[in-house]
Amino acid sequence: MRTFRQRRARLLAVAAGAVLGATALTGCSDSGELRAEAAGTSPGSGGSLGGSGETSKPRPPRPHDVPLNADAGRGGGAVVAAGGPGAPYNYGPSAMADGPTTRMWWCSQYPSAMPAGDDILYGESPKVDGPFTAPGGGPPVAVLSGNPGQFDGMHTCDPSVLRVDGTYYLYYTGAAGDHALGNSVGLATSADGITWTRANGGKPILNPAHDVHRDNNYGSGQPSVVYLGGWFYLMFTDTTGRAAGWNGAGQFLLRSKDPAFASGVEALGEKGFAAAATTSAQRTRSLVDAFSADLMWVEALDAFVIAHETSGGTTLTFWDRDFTANPFRPVTVPGAWQEGPGLVRAPDGHAPLSQADPCGRVPFDVVRATVIGGANAPTDLRHFGIDVHGVRACTDPGRTLAVLDGFAMPSPDRTMDLVIAGRVLRVDRRSVAERLATTLGPRRLPVLDGLPVAARLGGQAPAVRTPDGRTGFVLADGTLWRVRPGSVAEVNGSPVETVTDERWRSYPAGASLGR
């Protein structure tokens, strides 16, 4: 096999060595319910925030090291996704819960996709249990391959995909060939998640720091990105980072309001986030001792979660918003694994909502490779999951609106109520609410009854559209609520008026609607 693949095999081997001695983090109560056990000292807790972080506000006391209850174990059955004929391996998935469809990108190789190296494949399915196919059916398609002559000239792998304001961002590992420290992180953008254009002039957005050179010469890669509060949070592996383990394991974190991380970069260190001159600034703090991990924001817990592999399965390690403390004890999604869990996330990298109990229950679903295949590389992607329950997320109006963002449910007058951007929007047509919501609840939640309705989207409400296709509803109070996709205006039966950019900008802005 290629030396690049051998280097990845060595990375996996040292990862396995690191977790063989780990204690399983889940046990069972007498009822058979999964339950988190004490995790000992909190991993890598830092000090107070420094640098140019977000404006500080008085906050209530935060939880610390609180045990979580877990149940509803699921998955582990059939393979859910694989490349077509000739694809020897499948691993490193990025899974997006996008309304009624689960979309997934992962690392494989097609003999027909040139050059001969790692490719990123795409498939979709109405459910996370698959099977994942190309749009319309058939084998998954290769959507990003090597770019000869550039840093990713032979290999593109380890995707992490977000959608923010209608644009897809694909962060990935790229390598030009089979040489030491050859891996860096690249970025591509897309309007549909299938046809991609490389950003930053085709150059990497993150290179190895070269703080320390170890036997593990992988370099930097395996990115995972979350969008929260206007910031892009980028977690990644760098085997040359100062704070990495003896074997190169470790997860480092940068953030920026620029998706390409070309400006305003802050690096997480021992004293919190601080301004960094470049994305190759010294790696002084690792969040978890792992390779190939995934990051997600969980609004119901007011915490980040890092999914990483340990001896018992995929362990979920929780950090508060500032990465200063571990608010909850880890829990584990048990089952077979070989590489890289991909958390099933909303388009912005947040946790999907529970349909039945979004205020009290959080589903955690992962897709991961489960065997080493004939090519001596990870394959057989399978789905595993648990629910964390007993969460008291909707304790006040502000928290309720934050937790339920994107959730639609029946209203008292046989319409639908959609929670969006801290407001309740009453939508007359269910078919429209279905297209605007990230999660559709089967029944009304009593917690919403005391909250005021901010605006109403009636059937046939007037809409406007610019020459470049931006579309929005003009509501009764004169505010403009942009909607994606613009075709929702036609579903609503709205008369659509073409307006100039100047006219578009003249409307007071409402919230952005749609997925």
UniProtKB/TrEMBL annotation:
<feature type="compositionally biased region" description="Gly residues">
    <location>
        <begin position="43"/>
        <end position="53"/>
    </location>
</feature>
<keyword id="KW-0732">Signal</keyword>
<dbReference type="InterPro" id="IPR023296">
    <property type="entry name" value="Glyco_hydro_beta-prop_sf"/>
</dbReference>
<protein>
    <submittedName>
        <fullName>Beta-xylosidase</fullName>
    </submittedName>
</protein>
<feature type="region of interest" description="Disordered">
    <location>
        <begin position="34"/>
        <end position="79"/>
    </location>
</feature>
<feature type="signal peptide">
    <location>
        <begin position="1"/>
        <end position="24"/>
    </location>
</feature>
